[in-house]
Fold this sequence. Notes:
The chain contains six helices and eight strands. The chain is of the alpha/beta class. The strands form two sheets. The chain has a six-stranded mixed sheet, sandwiched between helices. Strands 2-3 form a two-stranded antiparallel sheet. A hairpin with a 2-residue loop joins strand 2 (21-22) and strand 3.
Amino acid sequence: MAIKVYIDQGHNPQGINAGAEGFGLREQDITYPVGIYLREILNEDGRFEARTSRNAPDEVLGTSNATSLAARVNGANSWPADYFISIHCNANENPAINGSEVYVFRRDSVAGDLAQAVLQAIVNRVNTKDNGVRVNPALYVLRRTAMPAILVELAYITNEQDAYKLVNDQYAFAYAIYEGLCAYLGLSPTVGI
């Protein structure tokens, strides 16, 4: 039976629950295609079945921040998915801050181990700075999902070098998440880069 992975491309294109911006980029301009690439990679590997929260670049989920987040969680819970991966880009007022981090509800957990594997794969493949696995139980998508959930901050949209990677290495970010998931599950990737 296929391992079911729900991929949430963080944020909407504009307005309600819109994301961070930097260097003329909007967060969803990165998270949307990375999520689609990851879905395609996972669905090409017969051991997985993947769905995305947003299926068109202009699709808006919810009518408020709360309903937007609820729609993403409900999609995963009602399927039901085995794993939930939310994809984001980070931002900071200090343009020197850069790197990748993965958030979990609790460190000592299945999600914590999965987060570590995914983060390591991103750092290895895309050569971002390893900012570690971080705990944030306040994040709605980590708190309300019924399965192990991770929130991946690919890199900083407000850092010039990271922004370049976010534009040019979208497939590599997606592939790294796939590699990390496989590593956590003790599987070898069957889909080539």
